[in-house]
Amino acid sequence: MLGLLLRRGEWTTAATLADQLGVTPRSVRSYVTAINARIPGGDAIESGPAGYRATPAAAAALSVDAEPESGSPRERLHAIVRALLDADAGIDVYEMADRLHVSAATLEGDLGRIRALLGADLTLERSGPRVRLAGTELAQRRLVSRLAHDEMEEGAFDLEALRRAAEAIAIPARALGAFKSDLVARLGTLGFFVNELAAADVVLHIAIAADRVAQGRALESAHGEPDETRERIAEAVGELTLTHFGVRLGRGDRLHLAALVLTRIVVPGAQGAGAAPLDPAIGDAVRRAVERAAADYLVDIAEPDFVQRLSLHVQNLVFRAREQAWSRNPLTRTLKSAYPMVFDVAVSIAGDLSDALGVPIRDDEIAYIAMHVGGRLERSRRSESTLTATIVCPGYYELHELLRSSVDRSLGRAIEVTGVETRVDPDWDAIDTDLVLTTIEPPLRPEPRASDRPISPDRIVRIQPFLTEADVERVAAAAARLRRARRLSRLRGELERYFVPGAFVRGLDGSRGEEDVIRLLGGLLASQGIIDGDYVESAIERERLSSTAFTETLAVPHALRMTAARTAIAVGIADQPIAWGDARVSVVALVAFSESDRPAFQTVFEQFVEVFGEPESAQRLIRRGTDLSAFLDELAAVIDG
């Protein structure tokens, strides 16, 4: 709940929080009380008529070590897993239940939860009342890592969060910060660039390894034949582990951890780093996947330098996938909600690579691909978002020149000044730039000529002859409003075209899961000849690659291939939020895209997601969208502001 409030940064009702968390408003109030108890003499969350809002102290509440609830399910689960990991002969169910002061039935339930956490390489073996954990040492370490990740706040992967998570599962954490700093510095001296987003994750694995080795559970050997680069990193990891954790790692552990460093936090291709040569098969697979995504989404990414950089990243990704040594990305949720089209391009690339290379690719790994795609598009993007402006400043010495210089200096990345009017009575209606920055009052009721573009009050920003910080903020705000209006106006113009009569469901039932909802909405479009069964199945396959819950309220399932007869949207609104991936959504919009209407993809996809990214707009649409007509009326009203 605290993560939700921090991300929103504004007032949120108890009902909205309850919907997102899947609890009652009464539970929300109890959570607020518990969180505020973490901050002596102050509150992390303030309450008011509009609901709840995070205060500046909220972030500090995350870093306060709260006393664990004695006997809580999570505390019991950690204790049982720790006991299973420590005892080769396993544990006695009845003895463990007595030790934890719970019934044998409760402990059996906890064992069921533990089974759900186990990967393919771990099993619980049962012999009467005795249960033991069977599997490789690496698989057992991955289980510890998963428990630590589950302890961490969503989206947080700083060293403080890592320390709290490690201590919660009894992993030594006192030296994590110093170890990470020294590791990054040592890698720098060896000629590597470090991926800071994944560094904390690798430090966690090293701490787990040190803890296991201290208990006599070392790795006897490591995967693959080590080269000179891996040997150098292994030596550095061994020295730092001895210095900070007081544990001497054997050769197997040193080489294993060196492989993690090479494939997870070292940026491929760094000068002097001795990066491994690119596997031609991986390079070919990446090139084909990128070319297909570039053609399908009409994006400029099929450039040799981009393909080369992404191929080196994917080579490491393949190694991580085969070793099940996944790299966590704390920006996954942000990338998915803020850049849905970029993320979808990454999903397309990841899907093709998964098929071609035979490895699964998870959401966090897709997010890293999305960062590559976004970086490429940012470099090649035209200045379409730059707005033009005219300055109106009656001439007096060089005053207008000074003002233009100040505007360029303070707002040059947001707007481009293309004209300066120095007359006291300019022809206002002849000014055709996006914005008008004026030091004098414009006429209240301009009389535009038929051939001119009438000047709108929304385009005019009053500024001072000597630009102030307040002026800069007002101009920036006006530019942001205008850019948003332009983006959403494209969606506004296509509403009636895309939304299909008869393809609207109020009271959507998501109890049988995402695939059932996709088939329901897909059936509505199929009955009108817009899509066929293959498109529905393709949308389900896309959902399996990565959840399409792009905001806290909206899921947008769709196929990766644009095979619909025409672009159309089927909408379902749930009276109570439904589980969708790891989120809970109230609106599901199944979008069918056609090959002949590719330019519509970005318009519909990103702008529709943007509307539902604003909690107040989303709640308005959910409450008032009783049927398709009402939904479209409210959507138009939201877009028009």
TrEMBL record:
The yes or no answer to whether the keyword Transcription is present is yes
The parts of the chain that form a coiled coil are none
Where in the numbering of this chain does the PRD domain appear? Answer: 277-383
Task: Check the record and name the InterPro entries matching this protein.
Answer: BglG_antiterminators, PRD, PRD_sf, PTrfase/Anion_transptr, PTS_EIIA_type-2_dom, WH-like_DNA-bd_sf
Keyword annotations for this protein, in alphabetical order, are: Repeat, Transcription, Transcription regulation
Decide whether keyword Coiled coil is in the record: no
Please report the stretch or stretches of sequence annotated as the PTS EIIA type-2 domain.
497-638
Pfam families under this entry? PRD (PF00874), PTS_EIIA_2 (PF00359)
Protein name as it appears in the record: Transcription antiterminator BglG
Tell me the organism: Microbacterium album
Q: What is the lineage of its organism?
A: Bacteria, Bacillati, Actinomycetota, Actinomycetes, Micrococcales
